[in-house]
Automatic annotation (TrEMBL):
PANTHER family: IRON(III) DICITRATE-BINDING PROTEIN, VITAMIN B12-BINDING PROTEIN. Residues 64-330 form the Fe/B12 periplasmic-binding domain. Residues 1-24 form the signal peptide. This is ABC transporter substrate-binding protein. Belongs to the bacterial solute-binding protein 8 family. Keywords: Signal.
Length: 331
């Protein structure tokens, strides 16, 4: 009798294992065939994010998001979130080519910031700003005003701090990925950006010498340049030395005389707006003071689009452009 009881016990356990395997297989097949699959606990759990002086709780992933500046638009698209977007705004220049097809799926609400009425008409539930102005007086509205309308907000932290680094961008990417429940995509994006930057660094000279670099945004009587903003990080990673990295500011204005005295060997020209990069270079070549720098004498200019210089997913591309311009023989 005991023998038969043991046999039935073994049979029952085997049957349970078979049924469990079949159930798991059917679940996988249903997911592969596009049938409705119950969301995981991680996808339905509340997400709490502290940002821009507010604490916001997301009971579910936003479904009608609007991005308010180009570099955060590209972060959304890099995470594959175009289907969760009902609008974009404020391009600095052309959208990053790999994201063009995804970008074309999303309505462009305004050349600059959309009005609060446009946001409401789009039934937005999430606004992603790249710069503080997005939620300032000339922007869409304050986070408090928008929260009262049931609209979550997120301000890209890396773009609104002193001395931002690549790691600060990664924190923002992780936060957005967490809000939209696509953490795996966020980590994959960060891993790829890290590998790309490491590959560039491996090609740089290892002699320890510092290449003096001036970042030229604009200026006629004075020079508008980068101090301790993200351009400083990009120039440093690319093997250069920002000649105004000692100035306690982000973007700053300096005298031509000071720029000449620090004698840059390369000038990075930021390309955006109505004045073309070529026009800026022509100005540098003909300015009585700035034409005396080694960079202008040797015509060593590197053109960098403003959208690539922002704290976004194009950081590795920006570093590649700079590194090639600084050390052409190494690339």
């Amino acid at each position: 009798m005991k023998k038969w009881n043991s046999m039935w016990l073994v049979f029952a356990l085997a049957l349970m294992a078979i049924l469990g395997a079949c159930s798991a297989k059917e679940g996988k097949e249903s997911a592969a065939q596009g049938e409705k699959v119950e969301p995981s606990q991680a996808a339905t759990a509340e997400v709490t994010i502290d940002n821009n002086g507010t604490t916001q709780v997301y009971k579910e992933a936003p479904k009608k998001a609007i991005s308010l500046n180009q570099h955060v638009t590209e972060i959304m698209l890099a995470l594959g979130l175009e289907d969760s977007m009902v609008g974009t705004a404020y391009l600095d220049d052309k959208i990053y080519e790999p994201f063009q097809a995804a970008y074309d799926k999303v309505p462009v609400l305004a050349d600059q910031y959309p009005t609060k009425e446009q946001v409401i008409d789009a039934e937005a539930d999430f606004l992603y700003g790249g710069w503080k102005s997005a939620f300032g007086e000339k922007g869409v509205g304050t986070p408090e005003e928008l929260e009262a309308l049931g609209i979550h907000t997120y301000l890209h932290t890396a773009s609104n701090m002193t001395k931002p680094t690549l790691e600060n961008i990664f924190i923002d990417i992780r936060n957005i990925a967490k809000i939209f429940r696509v953490e795996d995509r966020g980590e994959a994006l960060i891993d790829q950006m890290t590998k790309d930057v490491d590959n560039i660094r491996a090609k740089l000279p290892q002699d320890g010498k510092e290449l003096p670099v001036l970042v030229f945004d604009s200026g006629d009587k004075e020079v508008f340049t980068a101090a301790q903003n993200f351009m400083n990080e990009l120039v440093t990673i690319a093997g250069g030395k920002n000649i105004f990295s000692d100035v306690e500011s982000g973007w700053t204005t300096v005298s031509k005389e000071d720029a000449v005295a620090r004698n840059p060997e390369v000038i990075v020209v930021i390309d955006y707006g109505e004045t073309s990069a070529e026009e800026k270079i022509n100005f540098l070549k003909n300015d009585p003071a700035l034409k005396e720098t080694e960079a202008v004498k040797n015509e060593r200019f590197v053109i960098l689009p403003l959208s690539a210089a922002s704290e976004g997913v194009r950081a590795a591309d920006a570093i590649q452009i700079l590194a090639k311009g600084f050390y052409p023989d190494n690339f």
